[in-house]
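BUG-333 | component: ligand-complex export | severity: low

The export step for WQD jobs runs without errors, but we want the raw record kept on the ticket for reference. Input record follows.
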Amino acid sequence: MILVTGGTGYIGSHTVVQLIEAGHDVVIIDNLSNSKLDVLDKIQEITGVRPLFYHIDLLNMDDVERVFNQNEIKAVIHFAGFKAVGESVQIPMAYYQNNITGTLNLCMIMDKYKCKNIVFSSSATVYGLNNISPLTEDLPLSATNPYGQTKLMIENILKDIYVSDDEWSISLLRYFNPIGAHHSSLLGENPRGIPNNLVPYIAQVAEGSLEKLKVFGDDYDTIDGTGVRDYIHVEDLARGHILALNYVFKHKGVEAINLGTGNGSSVLEVIKAYEKECGKAIPYEIVARRAGDVDICFANPQKAKDLLKWEATKTLDEMCRDSWNFMVTTRKS
Ligand code: WQD
Protein backbone atom coordinates (compact mmCIF):
# COMPACT_ATOMS: atom_id res chain seq x y z
CA MET A 1 0.00 0.00 0.00
CA ILE A 2 1.30 3.47 -0.92
CA LEU A 3 0.12 6.40 1.18
CA VAL A 4 -0.38 9.67 -0.70
CA THR A 5 -0.84 12.74 1.50
CA GLY A 6 -2.60 15.52 -0.35
CA GLY A 7 -3.77 12.93 -2.85
CA THR A 8 -6.87 14.83 -3.94
CA GLY A 9 -4.83 17.93 -4.83
CA TYR A 10 -3.59 19.00 -8.24
CA ILE A 11 -0.32 17.06 -8.49
CA GLY A 12 -1.40 14.43 -5.94
CA SER A 13 -4.44 13.35 -7.95
CA HIS A 14 -2.46 12.90 -11.18
CA THR A 15 0.10 10.86 -9.26
CA VAL A 16 -2.60 8.67 -7.67
CA VAL A 17 -3.94 7.88 -11.15
CA GLN A 18 -0.52 6.79 -12.35
CA LEU A 19 0.15 4.77 -9.17
CA ILE A 20 -3.08 2.85 -9.70
CA GLU A 21 -2.27 2.38 -13.39
CA ALA A 22 1.13 0.98 -12.35
CA GLY A 23 -0.63 -1.59 -10.17
CA HIS A 24 -0.16 -0.05 -6.72
CA ASP A 25 -2.77 -0.05 -3.97
CA VAL A 26 -3.24 3.52 -2.85
CA VAL A 27 -4.53 5.17 0.30
CA ILE A 28 -5.08 8.93 0.34
CA ILE A 29 -4.99 11.32 3.29
CA ASP A 30 -6.34 14.80 2.60
CA ASN A 31 -7.98 17.51 4.72
CA LEU A 32 -9.70 18.91 1.59
CA SER A 33 -8.45 22.41 2.44
CA ASN A 34 -7.67 23.06 -1.22
CA SER A 35 -9.39 20.22 -3.10
CA LYS A 36 -12.74 18.57 -3.46
CA LEU A 37 -14.03 15.10 -2.72
CA ASP A 38 -15.33 14.62 -6.28
CA VAL A 39 -11.68 14.18 -7.36
CA LEU A 40 -12.13 10.60 -6.07
CA ASP A 41 -14.96 10.08 -8.58
CA LYS A 42 -12.72 11.35 -11.38
CA ILE A 43 -9.86 9.07 -10.33
CA GLN A 44 -12.32 6.18 -10.36
CA GLU A 45 -13.66 7.22 -13.76
CA ILE A 46 -10.14 7.24 -15.23
CA THR A 47 -8.72 4.12 -13.58
CA GLY A 48 -11.77 2.04 -12.64
CA VAL A 49 -10.48 1.96 -9.07
CA ARG A 50 -11.58 4.09 -6.12
CA PRO A 51 -8.62 4.68 -3.82
CA LEU A 52 -9.10 4.34 -0.08
CA PHE A 53 -9.63 7.81 1.37
CA TYR A 54 -9.21 9.28 4.86
CA HIS A 55 -10.52 12.81 5.38
CA ILE A 56 -8.00 13.71 8.05
CA ASP A 57 -5.42 16.33 8.89
CA LEU A 58 -1.72 15.62 9.39
CA LEU A 59 -1.85 17.89 12.43
CA ASN A 60 -3.90 15.22 14.20
CA MET A 61 -1.34 12.57 15.02
CA ASP A 62 -3.87 10.05 16.32
CA ASP A 63 -5.70 10.17 13.01
CA VAL A 64 -2.45 9.69 11.09
CA GLU A 65 -1.56 6.74 13.30
CA ARG A 66 -4.94 5.14 12.64
CA VAL A 67 -4.13 5.07 8.91
CA PHE A 68 -0.85 3.26 9.57
CA ASN A 69 -2.56 0.94 12.01
CA GLN A 70 -5.24 -0.06 9.55
CA ASN A 71 -3.06 -0.38 6.44
CA GLU A 72 0.30 -1.88 5.65
CA ILE A 73 2.02 1.20 4.26
CA LYS A 74 5.26 0.52 2.38
CA ALA A 75 6.00 4.07 1.29
CA VAL A 76 4.64 7.59 1.43
CA ILE A 77 4.42 10.24 -1.28
CA HIS A 78 4.01 13.46 0.68
CA PHE A 79 2.24 16.33 -1.10
CA ALA A 80 0.02 17.73 1.65
CA GLY A 81 0.92 21.34 2.40
CA PHE A 82 -0.10 24.94 1.87
CA LYS A 83 1.48 26.32 -1.30
CA ALA A 84 0.56 29.95 -1.98
CA VAL A 85 3.62 32.18 -1.81
CA GLY A 86 1.75 35.46 -1.17
CA GLU A 87 -0.55 33.95 1.43
CA SER A 88 2.47 32.51 3.26
CA VAL A 89 3.76 36.05 3.81
CA GLN A 90 0.39 37.06 5.30
CA ILE A 91 -0.09 34.04 7.58
CA PRO A 92 3.37 32.57 8.20
CA MET A 93 2.44 30.78 11.42
CA ALA A 94 -0.24 28.78 9.65
CA TYR A 95 2.30 27.79 6.98
CA TYR A 96 4.92 26.69 9.50
CA GLN A 97 2.39 24.82 11.60
CA ASN A 98 0.68 23.08 8.72
CA ASN A 99 3.71 22.25 6.58
CA ILE A 100 6.38 21.64 9.22
CA THR A 101 4.36 20.13 12.08
CA GLY A 102 2.30 18.09 9.62
CA THR A 103 5.49 16.62 8.11
CA LEU A 104 7.04 15.94 11.53
CA ASN A 105 3.89 14.13 12.67
CA LEU A 106 3.94 12.06 9.51
CA CYS A 107 7.63 11.16 9.87
CA MET A 108 7.24 10.20 13.52
CA ILE A 109 4.40 7.85 12.75
CA MET A 110 6.29 6.44 9.74
CA ASP A 111 9.25 5.80 12.04
CA LYS A 112 7.05 4.12 14.64
CA TYR A 113 5.60 1.78 11.99
CA LYS A 114 9.03 1.18 10.39
CA CYS A 115 7.94 2.69 7.09
CA LYS A 116 11.07 4.53 6.01
CA ASN A 117 10.49 5.25 2.32
CA ILE A 118 9.34 8.74 1.39
CA VAL A 119 9.06 10.83 -1.76
CA PHE A 120 8.68 14.50 -0.85
CA SER A 121 7.07 17.21 -2.91
CA SER A 122 9.70 19.97 -2.84
CA SER A 123 10.09 22.96 -5.11
CA ALA A 124 12.63 24.79 -7.23
CA THR A 125 11.85 27.72 -4.94
CA VAL A 126 14.63 26.31 -2.68
CA TYR A 127 17.20 27.63 -5.21
CA GLY A 128 16.39 31.19 -4.04
CA LEU A 129 17.17 34.28 -6.06
CA ASN A 130 20.91 34.17 -6.71
CA ASN A 131 21.63 30.97 -8.61
CA ILE A 132 22.05 30.97 -12.38
CA SER A 133 19.99 28.61 -14.58
CA PRO A 134 20.24 25.82 -15.61
CA LEU A 135 19.92 24.88 -11.94
CA THR A 136 21.66 21.78 -10.63
CA GLU A 137 20.79 20.03 -7.37
CA ASP A 138 24.12 20.82 -5.67
CA LEU A 139 23.70 24.62 -5.71
CA PRO A 140 23.41 26.59 -2.43
CA LEU A 141 19.82 26.79 -1.21
CA SER A 142 17.81 29.63 0.27
CA ALA A 143 14.25 30.82 0.62
CA THR A 144 12.64 34.21 0.21
CA ASN A 145 9.20 33.65 1.77
CA PRO A 146 7.63 31.42 4.45
CA TYR A 147 6.29 28.95 1.86
CA GLY A 148 9.80 28.47 0.45
CA GLN A 149 11.21 28.27 3.98
CA THR A 150 8.90 25.36 4.76
CA LYS A 151 10.10 23.45 1.67
CA LEU A 152 13.73 24.11 2.59
CA MET A 153 13.20 23.23 6.26
CA ILE A 154 11.44 19.98 5.38
CA GLU A 155 14.30 19.04 3.04
CA ASN A 156 16.71 19.64 5.94
CA ILE A 157 14.55 17.72 8.42
CA LEU A 158 14.46 14.73 6.07
CA LYS A 159 18.25 14.92 5.55
CA ASP A 160 18.73 14.93 9.34
CA ILE A 161 16.42 11.94 9.72
CA TYR A 162 18.58 10.01 7.28
CA VAL A 163 21.77 11.03 9.15
CA SER A 164 20.21 9.62 12.34
CA ASP A 165 19.02 6.39 10.72
CA ASP A 166 20.43 5.11 7.44
CA GLU A 167 17.49 2.75 6.93
CA TRP A 168 15.56 5.69 5.48
CA SER A 169 15.19 6.17 1.78
CA ILE A 170 14.23 9.70 0.79
CA SER A 171 13.63 11.47 -2.48
CA LEU A 172 13.30 15.27 -2.55
CA LEU A 173 11.61 16.17 -5.81
CA ARG A 174 12.16 19.79 -6.77
CA TYR A 175 9.38 20.81 -9.13
CA PHE A 176 9.71 23.66 -11.57
CA ASN A 177 6.41 25.14 -12.88
CA PRO A 178 3.76 22.42 -13.17
CA ILE A 179 0.88 23.28 -15.50
CA GLY A 180 -1.61 21.45 -17.75
CA ALA A 181 -4.17 18.86 -16.80
CA HIS A 182 -5.02 15.20 -17.24
CA HIS A 183 -5.49 14.32 -20.93
CA SER A 184 -9.02 13.10 -20.10
CA SER A 185 -9.88 16.65 -18.91
CA LEU A 186 -11.22 15.12 -15.70
CA LEU A 187 -8.41 16.33 -13.42
CA GLY A 188 -6.63 19.66 -13.37
CA GLU A 189 -5.87 22.73 -11.34
CA ASN A 190 -8.86 24.60 -10.05
CA PRO A 191 -7.60 27.31 -7.69
CA ARG A 192 -10.02 29.02 -5.32
CA GLY A 193 -10.30 32.78 -5.83
CA ILE A 194 -8.08 34.76 -8.17
CA PRO A 195 -5.16 32.62 -9.36
CA ASN A 196 -1.62 33.59 -8.37
CA ASN A 197 0.12 31.58 -11.02
CA LEU A 198 0.45 32.45 -14.68
CA VAL A 199 -1.34 29.64 -16.51
CA PRO A 200 -4.39 29.34 -14.22
CA TYR A 201 -4.75 33.14 -14.63
CA ILE A 202 -4.47 32.95 -18.42
CA ALA A 203 -7.05 30.13 -18.43
CA GLN A 204 -9.56 32.34 -16.64
CA VAL A 205 -8.89 35.25 -19.00
CA ALA A 206 -9.43 32.92 -21.98
CA GLU A 207 -12.64 31.66 -20.44
CA GLY A 208 -13.88 35.17 -19.75
CA SER A 209 -14.06 35.32 -15.97
CA LEU A 210 -11.04 37.63 -15.76
CA GLU A 211 -10.63 40.62 -18.05
CA LYS A 212 -6.92 40.69 -18.78
CA LEU A 213 -3.60 39.33 -17.67
CA LYS A 214 -1.05 41.55 -15.99
CA VAL A 215 2.43 40.69 -17.26
CA PHE A 216 4.86 41.37 -14.44
CA GLY A 217 7.70 43.24 -16.15
CA ASP A 218 9.07 43.36 -19.70
CA ASP A 219 12.53 44.68 -18.87
CA TYR A 220 14.22 41.46 -17.78
CA ASP A 221 17.34 40.32 -19.58
CA THR A 222 15.47 37.62 -21.54
CA ILE A 223 14.45 36.90 -25.12
CA ASP A 224 11.50 39.35 -25.02
CA GLY A 225 12.00 41.04 -21.63
CA THR A 226 9.42 38.92 -19.78
CA GLY A 227 10.22 36.30 -17.13
CA VAL A 228 11.37 32.86 -18.24
CA ARG A 229 10.28 29.66 -16.44
CA ASP A 230 10.50 25.91 -16.91
CA TYR A 231 6.88 24.85 -17.41
CA ILE A 232 6.29 21.13 -17.02
CA HIS A 233 3.19 19.07 -17.80
CA VAL A 234 1.61 17.71 -14.62
CA GLU A 235 1.42 14.21 -16.15
CA ASP A 236 5.18 14.24 -16.80
CA LEU A 237 5.65 15.41 -13.23
CA ALA A 238 3.40 12.65 -11.86
CA ARG A 239 5.39 10.05 -13.80
CA GLY A 240 8.52 11.32 -12.07
CA HIS A 241 6.95 10.32 -8.74
CA ILE A 242 6.28 6.76 -9.83
CA LEU A 243 9.92 6.43 -10.93
CA ALA A 244 11.16 8.10 -7.72
CA LEU A 245 9.10 5.62 -5.73
CA ASN A 246 10.73 2.72 -7.57
CA TYR A 247 14.08 4.35 -6.84
CA VAL A 248 13.53 4.73 -3.09
CA PHE A 249 12.48 1.09 -2.87
CA LYS A 250 15.91 0.11 -4.25
CA HIS A 251 18.26 2.73 -2.78
CA LYS A 252 18.65 3.96 0.77
CA GLY A 253 19.83 7.56 1.22
CA VAL A 254 18.63 11.07 0.41
CA GLU A 255 18.54 12.41 -3.13
CA ALA A 256 17.35 15.83 -4.25
CA ILE A 257 16.16 15.61 -7.86
CA ASN A 258 14.94 18.33 -10.22
CA LEU A 259 11.78 17.65 -12.17
CA GLY A 260 11.80 20.15 -15.01
CA THR A 261 12.08 20.04 -18.80
CA GLY A 262 15.36 21.93 -19.02
CA ASN A 263 13.71 24.50 -21.33
CA GLY A 264 12.61 27.99 -20.42
CA SER A 265 9.59 29.82 -21.90
CA SER A 266 8.83 33.51 -21.50
CA VAL A 267 5.47 34.87 -20.35
CA LEU A 268 4.78 36.13 -23.89
CA GLU A 269 5.62 32.71 -25.35
CA VAL A 270 3.17 31.09 -22.95
CA ILE A 271 0.47 33.61 -23.91
CA LYS A 272 1.08 32.87 -27.61
CA ALA A 273 0.93 29.10 -27.09
CA TYR A 274 -2.28 29.42 -25.07
CA GLU A 275 -3.90 31.66 -27.70
CA LYS A 276 -3.16 29.05 -30.36
CA GLU A 277 -4.77 26.27 -28.33
CA CYS A 278 -7.88 28.14 -27.17
CA GLY A 279 -8.41 30.02 -30.43
CA LYS A 280 -8.85 33.40 -28.75
CA ALA A 281 -6.71 36.44 -28.07
CA ILE A 282 -5.54 36.78 -24.46
CA PRO A 283 -5.70 40.49 -23.58
CA TYR A 284 -2.77 41.58 -21.44
CA GLU A 285 -0.98 44.66 -20.18
CA ILE A 286 2.59 45.08 -19.04
CA VAL A 287 2.86 46.19 -15.41
CA ALA A 288 5.72 46.52 -12.93
CA ARG A 289 7.85 43.55 -11.92
CA ARG A 290 6.47 41.38 -9.11
CA ALA A 291 8.61 41.54 -5.95
CA GLY A 292 10.71 38.43 -5.46
CA ASP A 293 10.62 37.25 -9.10
CA VAL A 294 13.82 36.20 -10.84
CA ASP A 295 14.40 36.81 -14.53
CA ILE A 296 15.15 33.21 -15.57
CA CYS A 297 14.56 29.90 -13.81
CA PHE A 298 14.94 26.53 -15.48
CA ALA A 299 16.24 23.11 -14.54
CA ASN A 300 19.19 21.01 -15.42
CA PRO A 301 17.21 17.73 -15.49
CA GLN A 302 20.24 15.43 -16.00
CA LYS A 303 20.10 13.87 -12.54
CA ALA A 304 16.49 12.73 -13.02
CA LYS A 305 17.55 11.22 -16.33
CA ASP A 306 20.52 9.42 -14.78
CA LEU A 307 18.90 8.17 -11.56
CA LEU A 308 15.26 7.75 -12.48
CA LYS A 309 15.46 7.31 -16.27
CA TRP A 310 12.93 10.14 -16.38
CA GLU A 311 12.54 12.85 -18.96
CA ALA A 312 9.72 15.28 -19.61
CA THR A 313 8.09 14.58 -22.99
CA LYS A 314 5.15 16.95 -23.34
CA THR A 315 5.43 20.28 -25.14
CA LEU A 316 4.22 23.70 -24.06
CA ASP A 317 1.45 23.44 -26.69
CA GLU A 318 0.21 20.19 -25.10
CA MET A 319 0.31 21.78 -21.65
CA CYS A 320 -1.80 24.72 -22.85
CA ARG A 321 -4.20 22.44 -24.76
CA ASP A 322 -4.83 20.23 -21.72
CA SER A 323 -5.20 23.26 -19.45
CA TRP A 324 -7.78 24.77 -21.82
CA ASN A 325 -9.69 21.51 -22.34
CA PHE A 326 -9.91 21.08 -18.57
CA MET A 327 -11.17 24.65 -18.18
CA VAL A 328 -13.86 24.12 -20.83
CA THR A 329 -14.95 20.80 -19.30
CA THR A 330 -15.02 22.16 -15.75
CA ARG A 331 -17.06 25.23 -16.68
CA LYS A 332 -19.62 23.06 -18.49
CA SER A 333 -20.19 20.76 -15.54
C1 WQD B 1 5.45 32.53 -13.77
C2 WQD B 1 5.88 33.74 -14.60
C3 WQD B 1 5.72 35.79 -13.39
C4 WQD B 1 1.35 35.68 -12.94
C5 WQD B 1 5.65 30.14 -8.20
C6 WQD B 1 6.30 29.89 -6.87
C7 WQD B 1 6.97 28.56 -6.85
C8 WQD B 1 6.00 27.47 -7.23
C9 WQD B 1 5.29 27.77 -8.51
C10 WQD B 1 4.24 26.41 -5.99
C11 WQD B 1 6.73 34.73 -13.83
C12 WQD B 1 4.74 35.79 -14.54
C13 WQD B 1 2.67 35.39 -13.27
C14 WQD B 1 0.73 36.80 -13.56
C15 WQD B 1 2.75 37.23 -14.79
N1 WQD B 1 5.07 27.33 -6.15
N2 WQD B 1 3.35 36.15 -14.18
N3 WQD B 1 1.45 37.53 -14.47
O1 WQD B 1 6.65 32.64 -9.71
O2 WQD B 1 7.75 30.98 -11.28
O3 WQD B 1 6.65 30.18 -9.21
O4 WQD B 1 4.74 29.07 -8.49
O5 WQD B 1 3.55 25.83 -5.48
O6 WQD B 1 7.47 28.32 -5.59
O7 WQD B 1 7.23 30.90 -6.61
O8 WQD B 1 5.25 30.97 -11.07
O9 WQD B 1 3.15 31.09 -12.36
O10 WQD B 1 3.51 32.74 -10.47
O11 WQD B 1 4.85 32.96 -12.56
O12 WQD B 1 3.35 37.92 -15.62
O13 WQD B 1 -0.45 37.12 -13.28
O14 WQD B 1 4.70 34.46 -14.99
O15 WQD B 1 6.29 37.06 -13.19
O16 WQD B 1 7.66 35.28 -14.74
P1 WQD B 1 6.66 31.31 -10.33
P2 WQD B 1 4.10 31.93 -11.58
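Assignee comment: Attached the raw record above. The first strand starts at residue 2 and ends at 5.
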